[in-house]
Specification:
single chain, 6 domains, 60% helix
């Protein structure tokens, strides 16, 4: 037999080819079944091609065709006529029938066993969105009970079998609607609700049967059945244990003990009606293990007994389970009484000690208990599975639901939507999570429909995976496409679970009282004062400004601020931190990423609070570049950028520049950005002080290099020069030369030039002077970006000497006039910008000057004389020498002059001493036994502490320069701020001060002994 290929076909297609194209795997059997005599009376020859096409749309065409032949063979009388109608003119009914037969062997067997169910197939009424009361009445009527009776009691003979038949009839209607939906994911919520309502109706019918079994005694016990889990949340699966809790109260004329006995008999009767063996297949197990004390506790309790247990003994997970509790059958008044006393406990449970930690640990235990062989196939319990979504949603509900009733739904997707609407979850995250959850649930439904068995495991066999893919609408993608989407969904769910479920905000919010979490004025003011805010009333005004209103922005800040006000308190100035946060939030609060980042990141909100309450320098930097808040989410974004990367960025700026002033301003912006990055990293202990100093030096080097190139181009344009008459070099000196620059450091430099071939010396000098002057002016100008003061006072002859010299001039000067202090200054000379060849020759020129073959005793005395003069003359008047971190006793100058004197004396013989780094030279002195390890450690500790204080003063005050920048503050507030930056808690400020003074005293003793040989 050859079937037409369909409309528009130019040639006939063989039956086998058509069947293969439709998705049949056993083509030979399919051809045999199509010719089966049972189909003859119900299907005309001309309809077989249409039937094959229709079968091609179902999950398993082979299964559907076999079941169809069996059904046609079993149908008689009216049922046979129904088959004819379904396969003939009633194409919608045919789609419904074939969809069921191709997706569920169990429902197909039901239809074969009970062909009268075909009237359900012919009925176009949907199986979902049916009122729960109607479904309840349907099943109660099936067992002969009056749905309107206060206490329905079954009267029909064979009531249990009747209940099960009515249940399967309704289940068939739900499955047909589900399997023929245009979008199964969109219909999922209706399907879950319909299945939960059907289960509730079945429990009501089972209770009516149980009451009939205990006769009149059943009326003396007022029993209610609470649905738990997915039944309680109205999101049930096709096949699942139905979790319940039984609550009983004595009726009129019955005492409590008798009511408990009768209640236990009723509960047992419900279990038998639903799951005992019988003529009709059982529905599902009724599981009461979520009751107090679990399987070890009594199966029924009174309301008072439940309350006593939950108040005294319940574990964290039990309150999480109660979130979905809902009356599904029995006495509604008892159920309401239970709800009224137990429901408030659910939303107070988060206040229990370690509630969030316990919830997180429970999820990990569930995950760890998944057998290794099933881990990659588990839709429910494994990583990225349904439980990841459900636990995430439930934990967010329990933490925030005590102050926000709007998010208390027991339905996962409804709760997720509410969490998004109220700002607890980003809308796009909620949408992605909802889509993933729907997909996983639809997979679960299709797996369970196949044999109406409880399962959550993806199949292994290729054919089974192919069948599942077709069942969820992925006909063309096949098994591999299904697996790929499953893996992608798992990854997505897991990432969102880890982001939301382990939010650092959650345990912090859980520890707050309801008043504190809700920022109620009285609670908030008392808490602000207790934390250490100096102006609680002012802080409260900031809180009110940030959280008032119904905007999403205000809603998210209502989540953040109850926790962040404590985090601000970890800084030295929480008032300033909160004010800075308000300012920043008013600027950034309407952006799509700012508040989302703070709410969802594992660290950004805490880090931002700490920085704003600790450093005015960083606060000002974030105000200038608010987008830098993004760095706080990842350590990698805070790590100092390599010099080569910065140089490439500056070069790109220079290459695109059409305006020299704007280009230098952009280079200065890069420096400001990197100083903010480094400061943040150091304050958050991601970068240590040495790494931070190197990073500051690197960006300063790059800034000088970029400014030099831009200045040269500008000067050539102004002078209308095609070629530069001189090569230029910038040599870093001082702390910059040692790669030890701080946040407030000037750039100490010397300018070197060399005439190009054929250029006149005077022209070269004029050109070099113009470039150097322009560079200093462009970097030091006050403007939109912080200036970098370029200080050339360490050049030969100091301020009295020319700003720029040629290399030959330097050679002549150092050969004839160099003083010992200039040799000492050259110890830190390091070329940082300009011509590479000129840099090599300059280093070769100055090395003999700074590393002399021997240092005369007169020179040693001169260095000591100059040092003593610096101590006596340059120390600001009225400044306590013990508190000046640079010039004071045991301060930076003491350590550096000591190290430099030893370098001048020994670097000629010890090459390792030929370094511009103070700490590097100190290490080399120790290795060469020129300084004892103990002395070196004392000097190192003092130098690091003094350098840290100098930087901390800039970070704390936000001010660069000035005499106060080198003095340990006397103000207790400022001292506490500096101490906090250096890692001392506020309450240990005095200890910090004592540590500094002790460190400097010890360092001065070493200096007296080593430098002064005293």
């Amino acid at each position: 037999m050859v079937l037409p290929a369909g409309p528009g076909a130019g040639r006939a297609v063989s039956t086998g080819a058509r069947l293969r194209r439709a998705g049949f795997l056993d083509v030979a059997r399919a051809e045999h079944l199509l010719a089966d005599a049972a189909l003859g009376p119900v299907l005309a020859d001309g309809d077989k091609d249409s039937l094959v096409d229709a079968l091609g749309a179902v999950a398993d065409p082979d299964l559907a065709l076999l079941a169809l032949v069996r059904l046609a063979d079993a149908a008689e009388g009216g049922a046979a006529r129904s088959v004819v109608r379904i396969l003939g003119a009633e194409h919608d009914a045919r789609s419904r029938l074939l969809a069921v037969l191709g997706a569920s062997r169990a429902l197909g067997d039901d239809l074969v066993r009970r062909p009268e169910l075909l009237d359900v197939v012919l009925d176009p009424a949907p199986g979902t969105r049916v009122p729960a009361d109607r479904v309840r009445a349907e099943l109660l009527e099936a067992v002969g009970a009056d749905p309107d009776a206060a206490v329905p009691v079954a009267t029909a003979a064979g009531a249990t079998d009747a209940l099960r038949r009515a249940y399967r009839r309704r289940l068939l209607r739900i499955a047909m609607t589900d399997l023929t939906a245009d979008d199964a994911l969109e219909l999922l919520e209706d399907v879950g609700a319909a299945l939960a309502d059907l289960a509730a109706a079945a429990l009501e019918g089972a209770l009516a049967i149980a009451r009939a079994e205990v006769d009149d005694a059943g009326r003396g016990a007022r029993l209610t059945v609470l649905g738990m889990g997915k039944c309680g949340g109205r999101e049930l699966n096709y096949v699942s244990d139905v979790d319940v809790i039984y609550v009983v109260e004595p009726g009129e004329g019955t005492d409590e003990a008798e009511a408990l006995q009768v209640g236990a008999r009723l509960a047992a009767g419900i279990g038998r009606a639903c799951s005992a063996t019988g003529a009709e297949p059982p529905l599902w197990p009724v599981d009461a293990a979520l009751r107090p004390e679990g399987k070890d506790g009594p199966i029924v309790r009174t309301v008072a007994s439940h309350l006593a247990y939950y108040e005294r003994w319940a574990k964290t997970w039990e309150f999480q389970a109660l979130l979905k509790a809902r009356v599904v059958a029995g006495d509604r008044a008892v159920g309401q009484a239970y709800h009224d006393v137990i429901h408030p406990l659910v939303w107070q449970a988060v206040s229990r000690e370690n509630f969030v930690v316990d919830s997180q640990a429970m999820r990990r235990r569930v995950e760890q208990n998944v057998p290794a062989a099933e881990a990659d196939r588990q839709l429910k319990l494994g990583t990225g599975g349904l439980r990841d979504v459900e636990f995430t949603v439930q934990l967010l509900q329990l933490v925030h639901g005590r102050t926000d009733p709007e998010i208390r739904s027991g339905h996962t997707l409804t709760a997720l939507a509410a969490l998004a609407d109220r700002g607890y979850v980003a809308r796009d995250d909620a949408a992605r999570m909802a889509t993933a959850y729907r997909f996983l649930r639809v997979l679960e439904h299709r797996l369970q429909l196949a044999n109406l068995r409880r399962t959550h495991l993806l199949p292994v066999a290729e054919d089974d995976l192919r069948r599942l893919a077709r069942a969820v609408g992925m006909r063309t993608e096949g098994a591999e496409g299904l697996l790929e989407r499953w893996r992608a969904t798992r990854r997505d769910v897991r990432a969102m679970h880890e982001q939301l479920f382990y939010r650092p905000l959650l345990p912090a919010v859980a520890q707050l009282s309801p008043g504190e979490a809700a920022l109620r004025p009285g609670d908030a003011r008392a808490r602000l004062a207790a934390i250490g805010y100096r102006d609680p009333a002012g802080a409260q005004r900031h809180l009110a400004s940030l959280t008032e209103g119904v905007s999403r922005r205000a809603a998210i800040q209502r989540q953040l601020l109850p926790v962040m006000i404590a985090w601000f308190g970890e800084g030295a100035d929480p008032d300033a931190g909160l004010l800075a946060f308000r300012t920043l939030s008013e600027e950034l609060g309407t952006t799509h990423w700012y508040l989302k980042l703070l709410r969802d990141s594992g660290s950004a909100a805490y880090r931002l609070a700490l920085l704003l309450a600790t450093s005015r320098f960083v606060t000002d930097a974030l105000r200038r570049s608010p987008e830098a808040v993004r760095w706080l989410a990842e350590d990698a974004d805070l790590a100092p950028r390599p010099a080569a990367r910065l140089a490439a960025e500056v070069e790109a700026v220079r290459a695109r520049a059409t305006n020299a002033e704007a280009a230098v301003l952009t280079v200065r912006a890069i420096r400001r950005r990197e100083l903010a990055r480094t400061a943040s990293a150091e304050l958050l202990q991601i970068a240590d002080p040495v790494v931070a100093a190197e990073a500051i030096s690197d960006v300063t080097d790059v800034t000088l290099d970029g400014a030099l190139a831009i200045s040269e181009a500008a000067v050539r344009a102004e002078l209308e020069l095609d070629e530069a008459p001189a090569r230029m070099l910038v040599v870093a000196m001082g702390r910059l030369g040692g790669r030890e620059a701080g946040y407030g450091s000037d750039a100490d430099v010397m300018f070197v030039h060399e005439p190009t071939e054929g250029a006149e010396a005077e022209a070269a000098q004029r050109y070099a002077l113009a470039v150097a002057t322009r560079l200093r002016a462009s970097l030091g100008a006050v403007g939109a970006e912080p200036p970098l003061q370029v200080d050339a006072d360490l050049r030969p002859e100091g301020r009295a000497g020319p700003l720029v010299r040629s290399l030959d001039s330097y050679a002549e000067y150092y050969a004839r006039w160099a003083a010992v202090w200039e040799s000492q200054a050259l110890l830190r000379a390091r070329p940082v910008a300009g011509d590479d060849d000129l840099a090599r020759r300059f280093v070769a020129l100055v090395d003999p000057v700074r590393y002399p073959a021997g240092l005369a005793q007169g020179d040693v005395r001169e260095i000591r004389r100059i040092k003593a003069r610096v101590e006596s003359e340059r120390l600001p008047r009225a400044t306590d020498p013990a508190r000046h971190v640079k010039l004071g006793r045991g301060g930076l100058a003491d350590v550096e002059w000591t190290v430099q004197l030893l370098q001048l004396q020994h670097a000629h013989e010890v090459p390792e001493l030929r370094t511009t780094s103070t700490l590097g030279a100190l290490d080399a002195l120790t290795s060469a036994d020129l300084v004892t390890a103990d002395d070196a450690q004392v000097l190192r500790e003092a130098w690091l502490l003094c350098s840290g204080i100098r930087n901390a003063l800039v970070l704390w005050t936000g001010r660069v320069g000035g005499p106060a920048g080198d003095v340990l503050p006397a103000s207790r507030i400022d001292l506490a701020g500096v101490a906090r930056i250096l890692g001392y808690p506020t309450e240990r400020t005095t200890e910090f001060e004592e540590d500094y003074l002790r460190s400097c005293r010890r360092a001065r003793q070493v200096v007296e002994r080593v430098f002064y040989e005293s």
